[in-house]
Amino acid sequence: MFIQLRKIVVTEGNTDPVVKRFSEAGIIEKQEGFVDVTVMVKKVRRGEQEVIVLVRWESEQHWKQWEKSEAHIANHKANLGKPKPEYIINSEGGLYEVKAVKKAGQ
Question: By Cβ atoms counted within 10 A, which residue in 7, 10, 30, 35 is the most buried?
């Protein structure tokens, strides 16, 4: 299993557009080796908010195929030069190889 993780920090009250963007149907679901996307919002009372997007792939090779795919590249080219929304404060990501998973009852 291979995971692509993105942490997006937004201004207070602006998690909904980010959650919507990563929750709507798209082309990624049709990609070989795609497992799922989990979108989480950190519980805070006030101030900046964090949205975590976790994309799971069967393998790193499947993720690489997606990154190099025409559909993925075209999507990024379409947004090239466009300013990020004002409510996004910061965005950072990481790539992770899953080494262990513990499930209930095991």
Answer: 10
Query: What DSSP letter does each residue of 46-85 carry, written as one string?
Result: SS-EEEEEEEEES-HHHHHHHHHSHHHHHHHHHHTTPPPP
Model pLDDT, residue 74: 87
**Which CATH number fits the domain that encloses residue 42?**
3.30.70.100
pLDDT, tens digit, 9 for 90 and up, residues 21-53 = 999 998 999 999 999 999 999 998 899 999 999
CA of 6: how far to CAs of 30, 102, 106, in Å? Answer: 20, 23, 29
